[in-house]
Amino acid sequence: MQLGFVSAILPDLSLDEVLAFAADEGFACVEVMCWPVGGASRRYAGVTHIDVTTLDDDHADRVRELAQRRGVALSGLGYYPNPLDPDPAHRKVVVEHLKAVIRAAPRLGVGVVNTFIGRDWTKSIDDNWPMVREVWPPIVAEAKAAGVKIGIENCPMLFSRDEWPGGKNLAVSPAVWRRLFAEFPGGTVGLNFDPSHLVFQHIDYVRAIREFGPHFVHVHAKDTRIDADNVYAVGSLGLGWYTPKIPGLGDVNWGAFFSALSDTGYHGPVCVEVEDRAYEGSLADRQRSLRQSRKFLEQFIG
Q: Which ranges of 149-299 does DSSP label H, i.e. alpha helix?
């Protein structure tokens, strides 16, 4: 396994500076964010370390040479919108950019593109499925033609009452994953697995690793702390009782996590994803969060 981080936490650095930091701190890889230029409304979105819309052969060559010179691999390209947004115009923009990211990946020597399946949060999973069958086959075909794996992250994207109860991403649980892989067999669609999102759903993430490990194409290392007092106050149907933390500061049992991961034969990237508000005060704080995460996780990844 290779330890890396998600570049979204360093939006104020250039790609060169991100890779230089990774090299200096002993990270083997970086998942590079490829959002459209112009930003996004939610936290940790809208970061563009590679603009795939202007990527020509010269630029692609420079990126590959830069990564090689720094000795840091690109573990994947990341773009995490809602491809099943109920607004058809927005959905079209999102899907076209996702296809552009997929086409850019092999030009950069990258074999994985990480994203969300998406969801119309006002509808049930069953009622979303016709849209899955309409929107996703062309995306999967694009990836297959490019020789790229799609890593679907399992974050529910549930942050407010406006998104309750489903959130903006369908692929949140084993039941949905089984359905997804039955719909898209062949290995082009896989998981970008993040244990933190299972902790607050009370899903056994170790069991999930053992069942779905063969489908993992990328892994995120993020922790979650459950606030028992808030669970008591608002119940599991409420919000605000779980907090994203850096690895080691939440409720994930990282020894059990890596034990199960190694048992499945996974040898790919494990990228720290920082969404911990305690480390958002400055660039130095955010860099410290990555440094601290690396020191903690190195006991599991030599």
A: 174-183, 196-199, 205-212, 228-234, 254-263, 283-297
Could you tell me if 166 and 130 are in contact, meaning their C-beta atoms sit under 8 angstroms apart?
A: no
- Domains, the chain, in order of start with CATH, read 2-297 (3.20.20.150)
Both tokens assigned to 189: 């669609």
Residue type, 187: G
- The two beta strands, 223-226 and 242-245, are antiparallel
Spell out the residues 6+ positions from residue 118 whose beta carbon is closer than 8 angstroms to its own.
Answer: 81, 82, 83, 84, 85, 94, 135, 168, 169, 170
Judge contact between 195 and 205, C-beta under 8 A: yes
Asked if 251 contacts 199 with a C-beta cutoff of 8 angstroms, the reply is yes
DSSP codes, 56-92: -HHHHHHHHHHHHHHT-EEEEEE----TT-S-HHHHH
pLDDT for position 236: 79
Residues forming a β-bridge with 224: 244
Looking at the whole model, is its pTM more than 0.90? yes
DSSP 48: B
Q: pLDDT digits over 264-284, tens only?
A: 999 999 999 999 999 999 999
Contact present, 79 and 33 (Cβ < 8 Å):
yes
Residue 161, pLDDT above cutoff 70 = no
